[in-house]
């Protein structure tokens, strides 16, 4: 287990390519984000996951994330991810 200060340093250093704007395939981003959370920074808390997801989203995906958070400030990470997957399927896959 990493000391708290080292864990927080890693949180501030998301890979520059770990971003999602809402217009491309969700699967690669989701896989990479989950791997980063599970393997590289294995001690993420629920709040860490939400914060890093927020920082990784851009464009329409960030706008939708902001709406989700406004509707339910205490939404669990897994629930939020499920809503994002639904959004991505409807707006990216369904409308393509």
Tell me briefly what this model is.
By secondary structure, this protein is mostly helical. It has helices at 4-11, 26-40, 46-56, 59-71, 77-94.
What key phrases describe this protein's structure?
0% strand; 96 residues; mainly alpha
Description:
By secondary structure, this protein is mainly α. The protein has a domain at 43-96. Helix content is 68%, strand content 0%. It has 5 helices and no strands. The protein has helices at residues 4-11, 26-40, 46-56, 59-71, 77-94. Helix 4 (59-71) crosses helix 5 (77-94). The longest helix is centred in the C-terminal third of the chain and has 18 residues, at 77-94. It is globular. The mean pLDDT is 77.
What secondary-structure arrangement, pairings included, does this model have?
Layout: H1 4-11, H2 26-40, H3 46-56, H4 59-71, H5 77-94
Helix pairs in contact: 4-5
| Unreliable stretches covering 5 or more consecutive residues | none
Shape: globular
Mean pLDDT across all amino acids:
77
Portion in helices: 55-70%
Overall SS class = mainly alpha
Termini separation comes to 44 Å
The major sheet is characterized as:
none
- Give the number of helices: 5
N-to-C order of helices and strands: HHHHH
- The Cα radius of gyration reads 14 Å
Number of strands: 0
Q: How much strand?
A: under 5%
